[in-house]
Every structure is written in C-alpha cells, then in structure tokens.
Amino acid sequence: MLSLLGVGWYLPKNEITNDFLHEKVGLERGRDWVDSRLGIERRYSILGRDYIKETKNKNPWQAMAYARSHGETPLTMAAAAARSALAQAGVKASQVGWVVANDDTPFETIPSFANLVAKALGVGSGPHCDVNSACSSFARHMHLLGAMREEKLPEFVLCVQSSAYTTRTDYSPKSIDGYIWGDGAAAQVVSARHPGRLKVEPMIFETRPEGADDIVIDTAGHFCQNGAAVREFSIRKTCEMFEEIARQKGLYAENCYTVAHQANYVMQDSIIGHLRLPPERHLRNVREQGNIAAAGCPSVIAQNLDKLHKGDQLVYAVLGSGLAWGGGYMEVL
User: Fold this and answer.
1) Pick from 78, 145, 159, 307: most CB atoms within 10 A?
2) Which residue ranges form the domains of the chain, and what is each CATH number?
3) 165 CB contacts (<8 Å, ≥6 apart)?
C-alpha cells in the first residue's frame, strides 16, 4: 500500500488577472468569453507583468533567460513545493531514496530534472529520474510506484511535478492560451512502509499515441493544441475514469470527493453535470490559479487536506499530452 506522508505546493508571486490580460497585454477575448469558456479569473507566473506586457512573450528563449535572471524557475518552484512536503511528512531530504520528477517546460535538456531537484534539496545518491506524462504525470508517478514490489522501493520517495507554461505561452492579441496557463509546482512524499495521511491506490494509466500531435510544445516554442478535440476527449475520458473507479470501489458520488485535472473551470462544470456529482465535493482551484499542468490536481489535494477527515474517500482523474490519462483512489487515514 502506498501512503502520502506529506504534500506540498507552490505558486510564483506574479499575479496575472483577466483585467491585466485585457487592459495591459491587449488580449482580444473579452471577459464574457473567458467566463463562459474557461471560468479562470487569475493565474501566477515566474515572468514579471511588465515583461509579459512589453514582449507578449514572442521569444520563449528570452523568457527562460528572464526567469533565470530573476531567480525563479521550474526548479526553484519544485524545490519549494518539495520542502513543504518534506516538512509536513517530518522527513529529511537526506532520507529520500528516490526522486521522481516531471517538468513539461525544462530550461535544460540535461541533466534530468530529478537530479537537479535532488541537488537543490540535498538528496543523496539514488535512481533519480524524470517520468513525464505532461498534465497526467501525477497519476503516472503514483501508478509507477504502485506497480513496484514494496521491498524494492526506498523507504521514502519524493515525487515532484513542476512547470512554467507561461514561458511557452503566446500573449499576442488573438491568443487564447494566455488566459489558460499559470506556473506552479506540487510534491508528495510517498512510502510503502510508513502510514501517512492518505492511502493511495493507483488504478488507471493509459496513453493514446495517435493523439500525440494534439498537444505539443516545441523545445523552445509556444504551446499548441487542437483545443476542440482535446476538450471533448478530456471531458469524456474523465467521466469514464470516475465511473470506472467508482464501480470498482463500490463508491457513490454523494459519499466521496472528486478531483480532476485543473484545465478549465467550465469543463469541470460539464463533468459535474454529466455525472451528477455534488459540486461541494468536487475539489478544484483552477479558477484561482489557472492551469498549472501536472501540479494542478495534487495542489488541490494539498490545499484541501486540512478539511478532510479520517475515512474520507477521494477519486482523482487527470489527463495530459500523449494523449495520456490516469486516475485512482485515496482514503484519509
């Protein structure tokens, strides 16, 4: 059995509101469009507001250089989220035997992001590695660990999801993506030997390679997706995962919490309507912090952990580029 001993999250300091995007950056979609299609009100970036306003992020290479010079990158966000998770777990960095990491927007092609995180935290030697399935990486990390024999796992594993999508976002006037993306990180201390606050049972992870071109970021290019196709697929597949996990675990919607990929508030409303989920039990944060990719779902869990009680049940389901999807079951211990 996998347990989450500690969970952490981090958002950068630069708040990007819809008013800023409309009035200062010059994005042409109006408030009514954003409210009706996305439901996102604010997001946070490692890029300064003046930088976004002046450059529209025409050149992602320059955005990465700007972020480095101002001391905030996917690595610094990952390390901050990881320190929070370790502190909550009461585990020292030196006790971590394996770092499993995801970064969709790497500033370096080598070494692995996991080794950079390990170095930043003071983690010692181990089989540290990147496991990247874009926005579904949290599910992939849980599924990877859950598929391993317990005696083969180190005492403590640190999973990290971090990305800075705003450095790959086009902020020219006709942009839609500028309304969607925020930056952020999440981290989890996982153990198969020690009980924690949450028991995790990974249940689903699959990919559909024929959809590989539907969501793409070139090495130093802008984010690009087939929005309509991805939206339809995401809603349908999330509903299917929730239904399958509920069937296998014998769950009823009114008795459990649900967490989906934090892509879009309006899409989540559609999922709630399709499955007749109790809105108050569908946990989410995308309205307040935008889509922060793989860190979205685990950041929701981290932010709501204090409101959960022993015996509470939670179903998670996430999707990402690949196309890839995964989900599972959690119980509060």
Assistant:
1) 78
2) 2-191 (3.40.47.10), 198-332 (3.40.47.10)
3) 104, 105, 181, 182, 183, 223, 291, 292, 293
pTM over 0.90: yes
Burial of 62 (0-12, 13-18, 19+ CB in 10 A): middle
**Closest of 114, 42, 36, 128 to residue 74, by C-alpha:** 114
pLDDT, tens digit, 9 for 90 and up, residues 210-256: 999 989 998 889 989 988 889 899 999 999 999 999 999 999 988 99
Q: Are 138 and 186 in contact (CB under 8 A)?
A: yes
Identify any residues that bridge with 328 across adjacent strands, giving them in sequence order. 202, 316
Contacts of 260 (CB under 8 A, 6+ apart): 238, 242, 268, 271, 282, 284, 297, 316, 317, 318
The DSSP bridge pattern shows strands 282-283 and 2-10 to be unpaired
d(C-alpha 315, C-alpha 282), whole Å? 10
Nearest to 87 by CA among 188, 185, 160: 188
Kindly state the helix (H) or strand (E) to which residue 258 belongs, with its residue range. Answer: strand 257-260
Q: What is the pLDDT of residues 125-175, one digit of tens each?
A: 999 999 999 999 999 999 999 999 999 999 999 999 999 999 999 999 999
Residues in Cβ contact with 289 at an 8 Å cutoff, skipping those fewer than 6 apart: 11, 42, 43, 44, 182, 184, 262, 299
